[in-house]
Amino acid sequence: MVTETLVTKTRQAKNGSKTLADEIDGCRPTRDNWPRDYAEAYQRDPGPYTTYNACTIIAEEPLELFNGWLVWQAMTNVEERRVAGCIQEILSLAARACQFGQAYPDQFECVMVNKNLHKPDVCVLSNARYEAKVEPIGPRKQHLVLMGSPELVIEIRSPSNRRRKERAKRKAYFDSGAMVIWDVAYKHRKIWVYNVDNLEQGQEYTEKDEISCEQLFPGWKRKVADFFSKDLSAEEIVGEVASQWRAESRAEGREQGEIETLRKVLMRQASRRYGKDRIPSDLMGRLNQCDSGQLIDLADSIAISLNLEEWLASFPG
């Protein structure tokens, strides 16, 4: 993500009144003294902005809040956005497949424990954390933000960024609840993975490797090259999730076929044992209401029941 100097703007609300940015008396820095990046923001004394009085501005612009100062964090490179979109698609499918949650694009606002406000380039958030930690913020409580970090944070590294500058940001994410952070160098087609139990040493993955996220998606793996590819089909983007769905469908189909066969066998056995003319007209309907375990029990009971009435009495419910 490219860090840029913000040119301060004066903006009027639709009703002609001043926006929240204009209401922070004495707190609007000029273009000359605006921090150039978050490293410079931390070198200064704490700035005048807080999460609450800056949330409207941040909602409208690609900004983040560091040490009380607003810093423009714009993704301006088309390739950067393309890779971020591919990562989001693949990870969202993986998260949904294991019923964990889903992936979100940039501009998802996260309030850190140090009161900074970060916007990951991509993130994966569990449904449980969404329900527990997404809260309204701001004067009218209409703006939703995540109080803390998503479980998985993905930052796309731009040429202007240096890894040493990302340490403080990673620490803030981990302190706020992140479990895994991906540092993606799209120009070099590499991903460094940082875990909560090892904040400093990231594991390097090249496009020849497979990457996993066992803490969140047990058993899931993916070729690193897929996240950078321009040529993935819809089938390839779905990847192993499609294979899982097909396997589950085949298994479900086999089970349904076995159940239908068992129902037909029971009808035939009952007709032969007790006489076709004596079989109740609703017998197949009653068998349709039984699951596989109940049908197996009925198959056992038909062999030992002395008459039709005794067998029908063994039906569940």
Features:
317 residues, six-stranded mixed beta sheet, elongated
Set out the fold topology:
Elements: E1 2-4, H1 38-43, H2 51-60, E2 63-66, E3 69-74, H3 78-97, E4 101-104, E5 110-111, E6 117-118, E7 122-126, H4 127-133, E8 134-137, E9 143-147, E10 152-156, H5 163-175, E11 180-185, E12 190-195, E13 198-206, E14 210-212, E15 221-223, H6 234-238, H7 240-274, H8 283-288, H9 292-304, H10 308-313
Parallel strand pairs: 5-9, 10-11
Antiparallel strand pairs: 1-3, 2-3, 4-7, 5-6, 7-10, 8-9, 11-12, 12-13, 14-15
Task: Give the overall shape.
Answer: elongated
Strand arrangement, major sheet: 4-7-10-11-12-13
CATH superfamily of the largest domain: tt1808, chain A
Biggest beta sheet attributes = 6 strands, mixed
Description of the molecule:
With 317 residues, this protein is an alpha+beta fold. It has 3 domains: 2-73, no CATH class; 78-240, tt1808, chain A (Alpha-Beta Complex); 244-313, no CATH class. Helices cover 38% and strands 21% of the residues. The protein is built from 10 helices and 15 strands. The chain has helices at 38-43, 51-60, 78-97, 127-133, 163-175, 234-238, 240-274, 283-288, 292-304, 308-313, and strands at residues 2-4, 63-66, 69-74, 101-104, 110-111, 117-118, 122-126, 134-137, 143-147, 152-156, 180-185, 190-195, 198-206, 210-212, 221-223. It has a 6-stranded mixed β-sheet. Strands 6-5-9-8 form a 4-stranded mixed β-sheet. Helix 7 (240-274) runs parallel beside helix 9. The chain is elongated. The termini are far apart. Residues 2-31 have low confidence and may be disordered.
